[in-house]
Design goal:
The chain has helices at 2-21, 25-41, 58-74, 87-93, 110-120, 134-142, 166-175, 184-192, 204-215, 220-225, 241-253, 271-280, 287-292, 310-313, 334-337, 353-361, 370-382, 385-401, 405-413, and strands spanning 50-55, 79-84, 101-104, 122-128, 147-152, 178-181, 198-200, 233-239, 261-266, 284-286, 301-303, 319-322, 343-345, 364-366. With 415 residues, it is of the alpha/beta class. The strands form two sheets. It has a seven-stranded parallel beta sheet with strand order 3-2-1-4-5-6-7, sandwiched between helices. Helix 1 (2-21) packs across helix 2 (25-41), helix 3 packs across helix 19 (405-413) and helix 5 packs across helix 6.
């Protein structure tokens, strides 16, 4: 099985490089990054310990960030090596100031794993959530490097727990010194499969979004957009075209039931997508236009046409809508819950523990279409101050009850 796995990695690597030659943007970034990591790791000083954190992409980095920052406070003399699998994570966080080196993880072959560890010399390694790269993990184990998986979540339907996944499950058990899981179901599942070196620590994302909400500053452009407004505000974050179409249909069907001001921060901010949203909402203005024309007040929809602002925009919401639920799955709902905002999202949320929890507590509400959105939670919450207040309190309570994952992990590590 090990040889088949490595063969699959070689085939994947060849496919990426071919796509890069054909002009695929992400493939080109990835192939280029694979060439650069030796030079990046050469900047590390091996007279002091190197601690390696690996995240698949930007979302997983945000999970790792509270642990990285807390670790740096405890061990200021240690160096942080941060690696990414995805260009979307690397390109945004390649200058992360707490990391001494940021690089792509090279393709997971035995030779690359040996070369990478020869260059990095990590004293310990941390992987986030689902990251399982067999050859790198095996190389770490053979060198007796303590290796941890945190914010992990497991479900019986995952390939690890199927008959064909037994080899991978065995390697998972052998590879990690300790596994920190998000929920009781994951812990029980690992115990049933005879993996005792695990514990319940929760999800570090709660700590991260709490940090963001606590330190968020006012946004002058949004403040200008909302100046003089005293009604409800809907903030729709990480939306895709199906989400935007549903919001537009609901707004057109019952404009008096819909929040009088709407802020839309789409997942994709390319020019074509922004034009599509403007077509759906003729009374809209883009964030970049409003910042350049501060006397422009005659709009009810603000389209955020850049990235990096969304997490602090939920502070302005009466209620939040999170995109992705009509596609592969919802995006981050915790950023809105951290501000005490009730959240709405589409029907594809079942793989997300926080969505299931928030629904059960009355802090989140799934919708199936624009009529469901309009006549269901949106109207019920905004027309009933008590219902809105109760949902907001449920959001804050859920966040408070789930803080502290970072401390639990560090306390185990320091024993």
């Amino acid at each position: 099985m090990r040889h088949l796995y490595t063969l699959a990695i070689h085939l994947y690597t060849a496919a990426v490089r071919l796509a890069a030659l054909l002009g695929h943007t992400k493939a080109r970034l990835l192939a280029s990054g694979w060439k650069q990591w030796p030079q990046t790791l050469a900047t590390l000083n091996h007279h002091t310990p190197v601690v390696w954190f690996h995240a698949a992409s930007l979302g997983e980095f945000e999970q790792a960030r509270p642990l990285i920052e807390a670790y740096r406070l405890l061990h200021p003399d240690h160096q942080i090596l941060l690696t990414f699998f995805s260009p979307s994570g690397y390109q945004i966080r390649k200058d992360y100031p707490l990391a001494h080196a940021v690089a792509y993880l090279p393709p997971d072959t035995p030779r690359n794993a040996r070369r990478f560890l020869d260059a990095a010399h990590p004293s310990s390694a941390f992987f986030v959530k689902y990251e399982f790269w067999y050859n790198h993990l095996r190389a770490l184990r053979l060198r007796h490097v303590p290796t941890y998986l945190f914010s992990a979540i497991f479900r019986p339907s995952q390939y690890l727990f199927q008959p064909y996944g037994r080899w991978f499950l065995r390697q998972l058990s052998l590879s990690f010194t300790h596994l920190f899981v998000q929920n009781t179901q994951s812990l029980q599942l690992l115990h049933r499969h005879h993996i005792p070196h695990c514990s319940l620590a929760g999800d570090t994302r709660f700590d991260r979004v709490h940090q963001i909400a606590s330190s968020a500053l006012p946004d002058p452009v949004v403040e200008h957009f909302l100046s003089g407004h005293h009604g409800h505000v809907l903030v729709a974050g990480s939306t895709w075209p199906p989400d935007e179409q549903i919001l537009a249909r609901a707004r057109n069907a019952k404009p008096n039931w819909f929040p009088s001001k709407t802020i839309i921060a789409p997942h994709l901010v390319d020019h074509q997508h922004i034009l599509q949203i403007q077509t759906l909402f003729p009374d809209s203005v883009t964030y970049s236009h409003l910042s350049a024309h501060t006397d422009d007040h005659d709009h009810n929809v603000l389209i955020v046409d850049n990235i990096g602002l969304l997490s602090k925009l939920y502070r302005y919401a009466s209620i939040a809508y999170i995109g992705g639920g009509f596609g592969n799955g919802i995006h981050n709902i915790l950023e809105a819950l951290a501000f005490g905002k009730p959240v709405l999202f589409g029907p594809n949320y079942h793989k997300f523990q926080e969505a299931i929890d928030a629904i059960s507590l009355g802090a989140a509400f799934p919708v199936r279409n624009h009529l469901d959105l309009l006549h269901g939670p949106l109207h019920q919450l905004l027309s009933n101050p008590d219902a809105l207040s109760n949902a907001s309190q449920a959001s804050l309570h859920y966040m408070t009850q789930n803080l502290g994952s970072t401390k639990k992990i560090l306390s185990t590590l320091e024993k």
